[in-house]
Amino acid sequence: MAKKMSVEEILAAAKAGGAKKPAEPAAPAPAAAAPDVEPVAAEAAPAAPAPKAAVKAGSMSAADILAMAKAGKKPAAPAAPAPVAAAAPVAEKPKPAPPKTDAAVAAAVPKDTASVLAAARKAAKPGPVSKAEAEAKGIAPVVPAGKKKLEAPPMPAKPAFARPAAAADPDRRTFMAAAAGALFGSSLAIGFTSLAVTHLMWVLGLARYMFPNILIEPPTRFKVGPPTNFGPGQVETKFIPEFGVWIVRYEFDGKPMIFALKAVCTHLGCTPNWLEAEQKFKCPCHGSGFYKDGINFEGPAPRPLERYAISLADDGQLEVDKSRTFNQEQGQWKDAASFVSV
Predict the structure, then answer these.
(1) Residue 282 pLDDT > 90, yes or no?
(2) Which end of the chain offers a freer environment for a tag, N or C, measured as fewer CB atoms within 10 Å?
(3) Domains and CATH numbers, the chain
(4) What stretches pass through the bilayer (predicted)?
(5) Which backbone phi and psi does 23 adopt, to 5 degrees?
(6) β-pairing, 318-326 with 296-298?
(7) Distance from CA of residue 216 to its chain's centroid?
(8) Cα 193 from Cα 187, distance rounded (Å)
């Protein structure tokens, strides 16, 4: 940017011979008057001291100044430009809004969800359509001029080895075998079957728990037949499994009688066995032995066997009553209810 020279410097350069032409100062651009905007007054800067001969800037050219210098006249110094007040920012005028169309007015109106969904569910589908939709709507494909529609050649027939074999109709046996194999053949089926059986056992156990424990015992009174069915010295053992009693025909204290012995050892409650060859009752637990009349003679048994009550019923049969027992050590074997005389 060229250095700005004052008028006095220009005159001095002209008197020196005009060897150098001073650069012409650029004229200040006139301030454009803003329409409809009032300038805002600002605080003025202090003005520089004006020279003696004031010449208006821009009123004389460099040639005029040189001509005046040759003639011996001094041009008046240019007056200092008046400070320009800082203009306030000019507010731009709002641009006029474009006229609203019907589409813009419709878009500006708020829509509810039902109207938006109704607009989205239009029957006409915008954009390209598939071949199936085009065939359904009867739209023929556009074929460019000079080109024929390409047609795919027919598929060749499959060879015999590639064709699936015809499934034979399974009979009942084949179907049952396949069902059994599917049910019990796989590990998953075995697991589910085991789970079902386990649940069934739990249900049965719960049902059994809901019922009370009832011990069904044989009747305490039962008949064993007429006295003639028992011979002298006979020990009948057929009533042991059901009633646990021996029917014995033997003599006691010199009197022939029929009595019923309780088949329970007086030591620890085991069931003795009748040994026909040895003519004695023998306990298999600890070796206690009893004679045919029930008297203990060996082993740890502390007392003789007990008797049940026995009597002759109205129909002539012997009837045993297990609700009553008789002990020999207490002298109860002498009771007439503990035997039947023969």
Answers:
(1) yes
(2) N
(3) 1-15+52-80 (no CATH), 221-341 (2.102.10.10)
(4) 182-211
(5) -70, 135
(6) unpaired
(7) 52
(8) 10
